[in-house]
Design brief:
Elements: E1 5-11, H1 22-29, E2 33-41, H2 42-45, H3 52-69, E3 77-81, H4 83-93, E4 94-102, H5 108-123, E5 127-131, H6 146-155, H7 171-178, H8 199-211, H9 217-220, H10 227-230, H11 235-239, H12 245-258, H13 262-284, H14 306-313, H15 320-332, H16 337-350, H17 359-365, H18 371-381, H19 395-402, H20 407-412, H21 432-438, H22 453-468, H23 471-484, H24 489-493
Parallel strand pairs: 1-2, 1-4, 2-3, 4-5
Helix pairs in contact: 12-13, 13-18, 15-16
The structure holds flavin-adenine dinucleotide (FAD).
Flavin-adenine dinucleotide (FAD) binds next to helix 11, helix 13, helix 16 and helix 18.
């Protein structure tokens, strides 16, 4: 009987890159040969938060990694499986000494899978070494020194990808492993409007932002059309780990030093801190996936309207900026922060629907779906944290302020493209006669508003302001502040 070779495995998750990837450098430092693995797990393929656009982005990211790995005569073993099955199959041919991966702040399904994998490793005498991801820490009880630790981490040297000869399992060996497993086809559709995955493309976005696109960053950040080129657009590359925050942060700091547009880059850098701040909050409050972090809001009961929800999801609410944003999001996987906040606010305040009913639709559409930002942001926008200001967005005012020529609206709601202002922002103001002049019949060519916005804004505002005074909401707010407030909060929030 031949003895099996002992190898180490890098289990890629949301760190789909070779450079500045601690799991990979740690594995390469070991004295064993290394296999790089990605598993398209059934638990995620079947999870309602995910959609095809995410898996295509992952496939593109792996293809990009594989191009660089060609020089090392290897590639990522990409399979569709459950984690235990994937590792069992690898163990048919090899003995695994250590698995390297990052700590995943994810959905409950991945947290439970990690617990099972810990048991699996114990039963199979495998070590599992997990590294910190983007400065987020496991096991914290408060945020003492959190900001300083995050900054220290961001200023550390980058992990260099420098394998020596034959450190990886070669293509032949991976091919024979594929015989035991269900190999994932990595081809993806080319004719979509989504950003394409992979570090190579990610760096094109980051570099062009640092070179010239940042110049009007803060002026355009809330504008639905101009933000598409003025903002960095690196969020999917960060969410799936094509770029590490540390790589981007270090370049950003250098650019800021030399730049005439310091405040724009400073504002961008502060958002990189928010990224970790939100994920850290989710890491420490994982029940946020299903329930408001402030337990005082659990008593808030909203009646469900399937019709309202359907109209919102399909961009048929009768409010042009809401519909334009939703249709654009569905088609391209991206809208800027303000439009996301407005979509969430419209759903939870104006339509008075529970934020939980918006989560999967939005996460399926956001190409950059990141659980650690998604759930805390939704609750914040719904006004259910007790510690943030209540903001009920008025879609018409936002349209007039941030899309005054209605360029964005006309593009995404073509049935309104020929209307003049103010009708393109408020088509429901048109009289019967005006509808005839413009050749647009409300309720037929474009929906009438599905709700009375003025009345509904007032209802939401009254109820939520009153709830803020509720003793349980106050007690919970105090608890949340104590657990999550950063000592140097002002510095973190400032654009520096
Ligand atoms: C309801 C709602 C859900 C959201 N869900 C996600 C999500 O799933 N994934 C996600 O990456 N962002 C999410 N955001 C935050 C924000 O809208 C996006 O990060 C941003 O629009 C991405 O565009 P950009 O890369 O051009 O950002 P830039 O403005 O160029 O910012 C650079 C990076 O900073 C981070 N960032 C920016 N704004 C925020 C913010 N408000 N909170 C935390 N991090 C931020 C992102 O990683 C972003 O890529 C959500 C916001 C809302 C209101």
């Amino acid at each position: 009987m031949t003895t099996k070779e002992t190898i180490n495995v890098v289990w890629l998750k949301r760190d789909l890159r070779l450079h500045d990837n601690e799991a990979i450098t740690n594995a390469l430092k070991s004295n064993k040969r290394v296999l790089v693995l990605y598993v398209f797990e059934h638990i995620l393929l079947n999870d309602s938060h995910y959609s095809e656009r995410h898996f295509n982005f992952i496939k593109e990211s792996i293809r990009d990694i594989n191009i660089e790995l060609e020089a090392h005569n290897t590639k990522v073993l990409s399979v569709t499986s459950d984690i235990a099955n994937a590792f069992n199959s690898i163990q048919e041919a090899y003995k695994i000494n250590t698995v390297y991966s990052h700590v995943e702040t994810g959905l409950l399904v991945t947290y439970n899978r990690d617990k099972e994998f810990t048991r699996y490793c114990r039963n199979n005498f495998i070590n599992w070494e997990e590294n910190k991801n983007n400065g987020v820490e496991r096991g914290l009880v408060n945020r003492d020194n959190w900001f300083e630790n995050w900054e220290d981490y961001m200023c550390q040297d980058l992990e260099i990808f420098q394998p020596s000869d034959n450190q990886f399992l070669n293509l032949e060996e991976i091919k024979s492993l594929e015989g035991f497993l269900s190999v994932t086809d990595l081809t993806t559709p080319v004719d979509t409007s989504f950003q394409k995955g992979g570090s190579t493309t990610g760096w094109k976005y980051a570099n062009s932002f640092f070179e010239h696109r940042h110049k009007d960053y803060m002026f355009n950040i809330s504008k639905p059309e101009n933000s598409r080129t003025s903002c960095s657009r690196i969020s999917p590359y960060i969410a799936w780990g094509n770029l590490s925050i540390r790589q981007v942060f270090q370049i950003g700091k250098d650019v800021k030093e030399k730049s005439k547009d310091k405040r724009h880059i400073a504002a961008f850098l502060s958002r990189l801190r928010w990224q970790a701040h939100f994920i850290q909050k989710f890491e420490m409050e994982h029940t946020m996936e299903h329930a408001s972090v402030n337990k005082g809001y659990h008593k808030l009961k909203k009646s469900i309207s399937k019709n309202y929800q359907k109209a919102w999801k399909e961009g048929q609410s009768g409010f042009p900026l809401v519909d334009a944003s939703m249709r654009c999001l569905i088609e391209t996987g991206y809208v800027n922060f303000r439009m996301r906040a407005m979509l969430a606010s419209f759903f939870t305040h104006i339509l008075w629907q529970p934020w939980q009913a918006a989560t999967t639709h939005l996460s399926q559409q956001f190409l950059d779906f990141e659980p650690g930002i998604h759930f805390p942001q939704l609750q914040m926008q719904a006004g259910e944290t007790g510690i943030n200001n209540l903001r009920i967005y008025n879609p018409t005012t936002n349209g007039l302020n941030h899309d005054p020529e209605a360029i964005f609206i006309r593009k995404w709601v073509p049935e309104l493209a020929h209307l003049d202002t103010p009708f393109v922002h408020e088509p429901y103001l048109m009289t019967e006669m005006e509808q005839t002049f413009y050749g647009l019949k409300l309720g037929q060519d474009y929906p009438l508003p599905i709700v009375d916005i003025k009345e509904n804004r007032k209802r939401a505002s009254d109820i939520l302001w009153n709830l803020k005074k509720d003793p349980e909401v106050k007690k919970e707010s105090f608890r949340i502040l104590k657990r999550h407030t950063i000592a140097d909060r002002n510095r973190m929030l400032r654009n520096e």
